[in-house]
Structure formats: C-alpha cells, structure tokens
TrEMBL record:
Domain Ribosomal RNA adenine methylase transferase N-terminal: 33-196
The protein's Enzyme Commission number: 2.1.1.-
Cellular localization per UniProt: Cytoplasm
UniProt similarity note: Belongs to the class I-like SAM-binding methyltransferase superfamily. rRNA adenine N(6)-methyltransferase family. RsmA subfamily.
Record bears the keyword Cytoplasm: yes
Pfam families, per database record: RrnaAD
This protein's encoding gene: rsmA
Protein name from the UniProt record: Probable ribosomal RNA small subunit methyltransferase A
Endpoints of the signal sequence: none
A GO CC term assigned to this protein in UniProt: cytoplasm
PANTHER family: DIMETHYLADENOSINE TRANSFERASE (PTHR11727), DIMETHYLADENOSINE TRANSFERASE-RELATED (PTHR11727:SF7)
SUPFAM superfamilies documented for this protein: S-adenosyl-L-methionine-dependent methyltransferases
Residue positions binding S-adenosyl-L-methionine: 26, 28, 53, 74, 98, 113
Cytoplasm in keyword set: yes
Length: 273
C-alpha cells in the first residue's frame, strides 16, 4: 500500500465519505504517477494553476507548494469542505460549482485529473481561454481520439478541432489500480498547448455534420447533414464550389486542412450571397 493510498483512505474514513462514481470520484492513489503529473506541469511561483475536479486535494496540496496560486473547482460541496479543511496556506481559492458553468479566473496553467463525464465540453471550454499549458487526465480512448490522424479508427470531430486549437501529446498512461475506487477504464495524461488559432464560425457545425457519417463520401455526408450547418446556403451551390477530390473522399480520410477548406468556401459563398 503506497503512502498516498493510505492517506486517501484515512481522509475518506475520517470524514465518512462515500465516493460517487456518477460524479467521476475516482481519486489518484499512486504516488509515482502523482509526481510525474506534477512534473509535467513544471510549476513555479509565477504560475496561477486552475484545477478542475480537485477532490480532497490530491493534486491541489502539492501544487499549492509549487505554484504561486491555485484555483480549485469542485462541484461536490461535501468534498470541497474536506479540501478547504486540508489546505494550509493562503494561496488556494476554492470554487464550489460545476466547471461547465462557473467563471474561470485568469490562469496560465491547468492541471487536472478531470471528471471524465465532462471531458469534451470542459476541454473546449478551457480552449476558449488563454493559457500556456494543460496537463490533463482523460479516459485512454478519449485521449486517443484527441490525437488521432486522418484515416484511423479514432479520427473524429475532436481530433480535427484539436488539430488546429492546440498541440496535444499523450505523455503517460495510468491503469485502474492507480485510483480509488478503481475505474473500469484505463487513463492517459495529456499535455495541451493552445495554438491561439481561431477557427471560422461555421467550422464546428461543418465538422459535426461531416462526422455523423464518417464512412460515407464527403458529398453524401454533407447532403445528409446539411441542415446541421447554420448558414443560409444552397446545397447545390456548395457542391459547385468544392473541389471534386475533396467531395469524393470518405469523411474519415479528410485532412483537417481539407475540412477547413470546405468551411472557408462555404463562408465565402455565404458572404457573397
Ligand atoms: C477524478 S476525480 C479527481 C479528484 C482529484 N483531483 C484526484 O486527482 O484524485 C474528479 C472530481 O471532480 C468532481 N466533479 C465531478 N463533476 C464535476 C464538475 N462538473 N465540475 C467540477 N467538479 C466536478 C468530482 O466530485 C471529483 O471530486
């Protein structure tokens, strides 16, 4: 039994906590992995770190020793109370609330063992803010989709959007035994460095529409999901302005740059009509 496992068990017993899987309450209990995650964050006194899903402070407490400031968001008020009890210094703010709804403070790094049920919306919410580095833990399959290349099984809307929005790298994997209680899935640690690229307004709609039929030809997929794209456009006009080599490709084989081209052509058409 590692020191962190014993410490976690003791805290949970002391406060009489019953962890809830529905809230993603699987707490990190592997000392070595915690050290590695903190190491990827490379924290120093100039850093203001945001943490989403702080739990009982497994990452928060050591981060408070390393960074200038930590803002910890936790939605479960009872768990947030334990976290507040365990914090010694005065450089940690706790926000009790849903990380999809509360305002984020200005931060330059985000280090979190995320509640996996909000992986996608919280990642896109984070990327609407300016920051330098994210060290984020996800379900392994989700992380694989984040970095997937065109033509592969995991290539998805998420891969395409992130291709432009951030440099993403999988830097570590964690087995279920690294957590208490054990989740049913493996996990991955991902570093995220935002590029600052701003996507055209229709890009997300176009990606969503296309990937509803990822194995179909682009022309067919666009036709079937054209209603998903919120623009006043005529489908036949769109077909006329898109290169045939793009229209003939299966959606999952389209490069992110080709999806950007589809979007830009649509926006030009919309602006000229
Ligand atoms: C996977 S645990 C991580 C806990 C701790 N950081 C660790 O590494 O052991 C995720 C935490 O997020 C909290 N949580 C779940 N949904 C949330 C949400 N929408 N906003 C903020 N916190 C949430 C859960 O209560 C839980 O404490």
């Amino acid at each position: 039994m590692t020191g962190l496992y014993r410490e976690t068990r003791d805290v949970l017993r002391k406060y009489g906590v019953r962890l809830r899987r529905s809230l993603g309450q699987n707490y990190l209990v592997d000392d070595g992995k915690r050290q590695r995650i903190l190491g990827y964050g490379n924290l120093g006194p100039d850093d203001h770190v945001l943490e989403i899903g702080a739990g009982i402070g497994t990452l928060t407490l050591p981060m408070a020793e390393l960074a200038g400031h930590v803002t910890a968001i936790e939605s479960d008020p009872f768990i947030a109370g334990i976290l507040a009890d365990r914090i010694k210094g005065d450089n940690v703010d706790i926000i009790v609330g849903d990380a999809l709804k509360v305002d984020f403070p200005a931060f330059n790094k985000v280090v979190s063992n995320l509640p996996y049920q909000i992986s996608s919306p919280v990642t896109f919410r984070l990327l609407r803010h300016e920051f330098e580095l994210g060290v984020l833990m996800y379900q392994k399959e989700f992380a694989a989709r984040m970095v997937a290349e065109p033509g592969t099984r995991d290539y998805s809307r998420l891969s395409v959007m992130l291709h432009f929005l951030a440099e993403v790298q999988i830097v570590d994997y964690l087995k279920p035994g690294c957590f208490f209680p054990r989740p049913r899935v493996d996990s991955a640690v991902v570093t995220v460095r935002p590029t600052g690229f701003s996507l055209p307004a229709l890009f997300e709609d176009v990606c969503r529409a296309l990937f509803q039929h990822r194995k179909k030809k682009t022309s067919k997929s666009l036709r079937e999901s054209f209603h998903e794209i919120k623009a006043d456009l005529d489908f036949s006009e769109v077909l006329d302005v898109l290169p045939s080599e793009i229209l003939e490709k299966r959606v999952f084989q389209l490069k992110p740059e080709e999806i950007l081209e589809i979007t830009e052509r649509m926006e030009e058409l919309s602006a000229s009509s």
